[in-house]
Amino acid sequence: MKASLLVDAPILDKKRIWIKKVYKPFFDHEFHFHKTYEFSWIAEGSGKMIAGDYLGQFEKGELFMLGLGLPHILRCDPQYYIPKQKKYTKAYSIYFTGEYISSITDDPDLLAALGTLLQRSERGFRIHGETKKTATAITKKIIETDGFERLGLFLQLLHLLSHTADYTLLASPGYKLQPSQNDMNRFKEVYDYLFKNFQHQITLAEVAGICSMTTNAFCRFFKLKTQKTFVRFLTEIRIGHACKLLQDQNQNIKNLCYECGFNNPVFFFRSFKKITGKTPMEYRKGIVYLDES
Q1: According to the model, what pLDDT value does residue 134 have?
Q2: Alpha carbon distances (Å) from 244 to 122, 202, 233, 251
Q3: Which of 8, 7, 16, 9 is nearest to 154 (CA)?
């Protein structure tokens, strides 16, 4: 099965925005990118997200903006794939083109602010802080309205996003990926395999085999396209899962490393500190502090 190279909203060359609603047991779209800009609100769901060379967690309530051409994928936590859990995801995405906004106004200040926002979205960014609360409220209204009211709210959202400092960029500054159809197929298969099997031992040879490559060729290919080594990427997936498990105060920190695919507690602790900047215990204490605040 071929991965989707483009999953575009039906608004190219049309002067409007388009809103897509997703309500499914789990997010199932392929690794893909758009020729439009995308602003998304994750109303329900949690799991892992890839945007360019960024790999991290997403949670309920997240707000993201992704630029055109930025490959991305969301994969839910394991419990969403268990029918008996009766878990559901819900998300809303607003798609638009830069040309559409430019057609509405020729005000140089507005266009300059828009240009800055769209340039920022090339790396993708996550909204947080007070801006997240305000943007979420505006997004809910956009979904519920239409016509001039929807347009006015959408412009209000763009104004908010273009003037806020409450954001975190996702992909690294040096990330430049011009994916071909063949590359997208390869990445989709590799990502799916890693997400399904990261809790078990994974050899470089078996992953390289998915791409019909030698291990050396695969390592070069992976580093070129993601700006990360394969080992670093897999380790980040495992550490991300560990961060989820640490939210359960009853989890034994030393033992949870085995549930994340590590077979050596010392290597787990060292990797966790290297990637998060904290020890597992420090990370857990931070969660407790946030819960109490």
Answers
A1: 98
A2: 28, 21, 17, 11
A3: 16
**CA distances for 60 relative to 47, 91, 152, 159, angstroms:** 9, 9, 26, 24
Strands (E) located in 166-215: 167-169
Distance CA 4, CA 73 (A): 11
For position 287, which CATH number holds?
Answer: 1.10.10.60
State the Cα–Cα distance between residues 122 and 125, nearest whole angstrom: 9
Q: How far is CA 292 from CA 62, 105, 242, 286, 287, in A?
A: 21, 47, 21, 10, 9
Coil, helix or strand at residue 63: strand
pLDDT, tens digit, 9 for 90 and up, residues 236-289: 889 988 888 887 888 888 888 999 999 999 999 999 999 888 899 988 887 654
The answer on 236 and 150 residing in a single domain is no
Full-prediction pTM beyond 0.90? no
